[in-house]
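All the exercises in this workshop are built on plain-text protein records. Instead of coordinates, the fold is spelled out as a row of discrete tokens. Once this layout is familiar, the rest of the handout is easier to follow. The record below serves as our worked example for the rest of this section.
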Amino acid sequence: MTEKMIKKNTEYNGVKRRKNYTLHSILYTLIIVVLFSCASKRPTTEIAPLSSAEEQRFYYFYHEAVRLSNIRQLDQALETFRLAYSIAPNKAGLNSDLGVLYALIGFIDESEQHLQKAVALQPQNWWFNLRLINLLAERRKYDDAIQTVLALQKHFPYKEEVYFMLASLYTQTRQFELAIDAYNQMERIVGISETLSFEKTRLYLRAGMPERGIAEIHRLIEAFPAEMRYRVLLGDMYMQLNQPETARVIFEQVLAEDPQNPFVYISLSEYYISTNQPEKALELIVKALKNEQLDISTKLDILGTHIESLLENDKKVDEIENLFKLLIEHYPLEEQVHAFYAVFLLFQDRQEDMKPVLQTILYINPQNEAAWFQLVQPYFVEKDYEKVIEIMTRAIESNPDAPEFYFYKSIAQMLFTNYEDAVTSVQTGIDLFESGQATGNRALHSEFYTHLGDILNRLERFDESFEAYERAIEINPNNARALNNYAFSLAVKGKNLRQAERMSLRSLELDPNNSAYLDTYAWILFKEGHYRLALFYIRRAIDNLQEGEERGIIFNHYGDILYRTGDKEKALEMWKKALELGVKCERLNMKIETGSLPENP
């Protein structure tokens, strides 16, 4: 049995701390502390009662301080509480409220002093004690907190929270047997219960006494013999103690008595996994997922845990798909069920079947960004840019502050040769960054400017393009794509070749095997007249070409470099290859026709 199975939250959160004070308030606090220390030494029975006027002044300041606290004007509240304190320092409620306020503004020692005083003045007040216990626990003064709870127990011997606090504090100090004893005392008051037995079992396991933990579950089974969950839990404990055969016997007994019990299928599947019988384990997982008694939350947990084994089982593809369809039929508006089915279809490489599933997910939750991106991918592959634009437009309507959608839309518009629209989309995304609506992703911010530079380049707005590349590099100096594209643009224009060479070399330092970056560097060297060195790098570019990369431009450049190094025959061969690979350019046609390279490349 794991912690997760029997975990119950028994932690008591301490008072939230906040620093908000001035030098004046610190000095004033020291004066008040001295007054408080002197006053607290006198027996309360010797305190003279307040006059009617003093009582009236006290309650005016006290209620005003409470009001200021409620509207979070803490400095003013503290000053006003102090005025009330100067009139009546032995009011328990005032000391308790002062203790809380001191904790909020960060004066923890003063907070504890006032809370201690409140409890001393009214030891039977539950809330005063609880505030003090919380603060002591937060300060890790566990022994003091325990003593305070033990004192409180004398006033509230039948209050369950007392024993939960005791058990929690003993657990914090690793006094597990005392924590168990606290639960036993509570059990004598309220009777045996699942909560208490689970807590005790958890502590027995932490204390290294698993046999006593098993005995505790046996007590629970004896008290509630019809509750099969406890028997399954017992089997889980034996699994954890590495006694799988004992666990299997228990699981099979539960299965015989209660064949519809959903939890035994899960636990028994764990047994088969541990004994290397994955087929049997998968059968039980599927049965559990089909079981109508199992809630959807648990089913989603099972799917999340076992999705890989479900996906990898080629022998039962149809059965598993029917299982997903059954779950969708039962839970048509459960987003996660559709998401798991989409993963299954993706794993089967069934892109077309996945599209309506993703559409359903987005109908349920239009803010699911991952689903939008997954939906658009196959249309990019199919080069259906018009469809990509349509999908990204819908995505933006539901997620207007998500910059990635503008990026995808702009790429599709550029590929669809809608350059002006592409500029508008990418600029809208940039505006989200510039206005602070999209933060924390400098790399993406830089990529937006790189993309803007690429579009402006196609529009032959070269000066604006260069400014965009420079802004991209300013935001992210390690943006290899911006460095390369800017360098290539300069090389094509024959401008600032030394700057282009430095940027190109930096892009290669960041991504040394990128064929496009190697081609850029070779082309810059060619422009500078370093033909032999250019030949070395263009060959490296060709050697590193990946499937799907644009090849025509590289072979065109290769031909030019070969021609300048004297290999005119091979140069012609490369130019023809570039033409075959789709390079359309009058200059390339002229090179092939004449078998020569013009003087101004």
In short: The chain has 33 helices and no strands. The domain at 1-142 is CATH 1.25.40.10 (Serine Threonine Protein Phosphatase 5, Tetratricopeptide repeat). The longest helix spans residues 52-70. The two ends are 75 Å apart (CA to CA).
